[in-house]
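Propose amino acids for all 501 sites.
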């Protein structure tokens, strides 16, 4: 890289890192982002896939966090209507858990705290007569319904990285920070890729957005002491076939007062989660335990007519949430808010470390991070992301259904499920992917499901995808719909492409 220092080196390619890189690049700063693995390979692709205010956080008096998240929910819905869309959540009332008056009060506050504009308000339900009640045991006759939003979490990360790159940020995946030391008021950093090659970067400031590894980066890579601590909490999810009619999701109060989300997923599947377990191991390679899977199944079976068993689980995943350690005894009570730690020397060479946060508030977190750094970059321009669509999100009036219908009309010879997949993942960028394709043959080799060669090549060329997992698990969810033989054939093709590159 050039010997001239860049303004900002961002460490971490999760949602907070790419959000800060995007915002900074849009304010005129020169930015380099390094990520030791793939974008969103850690926590940011292993979430509950919701943009939500956090209804249960009201019990812990996190009013500022909930308000900020509720406002951001609608900002993000406008910015990326292809990967974010409304969901209605049905909450059956259980007399053994929170009283009805408490839920009513909480939902009323939830409706008004964030100045809701786009989403419908909450309401009471008679589950004995509503479609949503048919999947539930007959003893659950009353309930509530409220709004939140679904998000494709890994794609949200990639879209932020794409926008940062479009504004001249350099995105280095599979490149870890090896060392960073201050020298004459500048950071001198060594980055090492997975082949062992070193890249030297000089930077006026560093943002440490390494998530579960934030303390490690601060202490071991930058040689500094951490004033705050991160608390690791493991959250696991399972995927089963969808077992109810209708588009609604469910929120179940478990007998330990935790809540479990049961959400429609990938058309015919269902995502169930999450657990909250203190975690002290390595954040890489974490997996759902059998105890966690049983816990989630029991929670669903407590409410639903259709009793799920271990054989119904077709996939599971687990992530480690890097929460700010506020010394709460109950992992569920640990704050989901974020805290910054700023370290500099004589007003120069700052390193800003990010502790905590949640997907919904990443954009505000990014704005607040750059407010912290403004004294070091006095000519930096102001906030801009609140009204800026993410790549592919520039859909007229944010009307995704009308947009999708228009693309299907323009490509009548292509399978509707394939076109729908493209517009849902790529929004207006689907036109760039499709180009002049008119027939399925124009999409290249068919690997199974809705996966064609043309999309895989697009992801390799445009979105830093270099392994089968990058495509099958993070950029898309094709892996859930392919047989083992089809996955192996795709892996072999990717290996061949890598060799010929």
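Proposal:
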């Amino acid at each position: 890289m050039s010997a001239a220092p860049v303004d900002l080196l961002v460490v971490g390619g999760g949602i907070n890192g790419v959000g800060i890189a995007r915002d900074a690049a849009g304010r005129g700063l020169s930015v380099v982002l390094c990520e030791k693995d793939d974008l969103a390979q850690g926590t940011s692709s292993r979430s509950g896939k919701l943009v939500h205010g956090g209804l249960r956080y009201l019990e812990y008096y996190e009013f500022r966090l909930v308000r900020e998240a509720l406002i951001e929910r609608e900002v993000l819905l406008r910015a990326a209507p292809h990967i974010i869309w409304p969901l209605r959540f049905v909450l059956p009332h259980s007399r053994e858990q929170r009283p009805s008056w408490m839920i009513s009060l909480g939902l009323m506050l939830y409706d008004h705290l964030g100045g809701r504009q786009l989403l419908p308000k909450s309401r009471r339900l008679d589950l004995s007569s509503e479609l949503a009640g048919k999947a539930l045991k007959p003893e659950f006759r009353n309930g509530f319904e409220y709004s939140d939003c679904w998000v494709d979490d890994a794609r949200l990360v990639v879209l932020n990285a794409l926008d940062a790159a479009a504004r001249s940020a350099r995105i280095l995946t599979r490149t870890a920070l090896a060392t960073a030391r201050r020298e004459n008021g500048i950071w001198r950093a060594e980055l090492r890729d997975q082949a062992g090659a070193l890249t030297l970067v000089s930077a006026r400031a560093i943002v440490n957005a390494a998530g579960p590894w934030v303390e490690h980066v601060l202490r071991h890579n930058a040689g500094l002491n951490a004033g705050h601590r991160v608390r690791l909490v493991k959250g696991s999810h399972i995927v089963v076939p969808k077992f109810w009619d209708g588009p609604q999701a469910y929120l179940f109060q478990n007998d330990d007062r935790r809540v479990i989300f049961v959400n429609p997923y990938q058309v015919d599947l269902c995502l169930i989660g999450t657990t909250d377990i203190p975690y002290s191991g390595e954040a890489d390679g974490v997996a759902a335990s059998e105890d966690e899977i049983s816990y989630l199944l029991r929670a669903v079976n407590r409410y639903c007519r259709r009793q799920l068993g271990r054989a119904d689980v077709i996939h599971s995943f687990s992530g480690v949430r890097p929460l700010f350690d506020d010394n709460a005894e109950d992992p569920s009570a640990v704050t989901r808010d974020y805290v910054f730690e700023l370290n500099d020397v004589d007003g120069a060479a700052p390193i800003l470390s990010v502790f905590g946060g949640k997907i919904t508030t990443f954009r505000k977190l990014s704005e607040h991070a750059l407010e912290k750094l403004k004294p070091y970059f006095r000519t930096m321009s102001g906030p801009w992301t609140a009204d800026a669509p993410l790549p592919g999100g520039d859909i007229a009036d944010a009307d995704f259904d009308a947009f999708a219908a228009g693309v299907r009309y323009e490509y009548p010879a292509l399978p509707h499920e394939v076109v729908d997949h493209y517009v849902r993942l790529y929004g207006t960028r689907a036109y760039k992917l499709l180009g002049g394709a008119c027939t399925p043959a124009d999409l290249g080799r068919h690997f199974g499901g809705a996966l064609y060669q043309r999309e895989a090549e697009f992801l390799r060329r445009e979105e830093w995808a270099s392994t089968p997992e990058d495509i099958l698990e993070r950029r898309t969810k094709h892996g859930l719909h392919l047989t083992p033989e089809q996955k192996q054939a795709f892996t072999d093709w990717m290996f061949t492409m890598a060799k010929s590159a």
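Residues 63-79 form the longest helix (17 residues). The chain has 13 helices and 20 strands.
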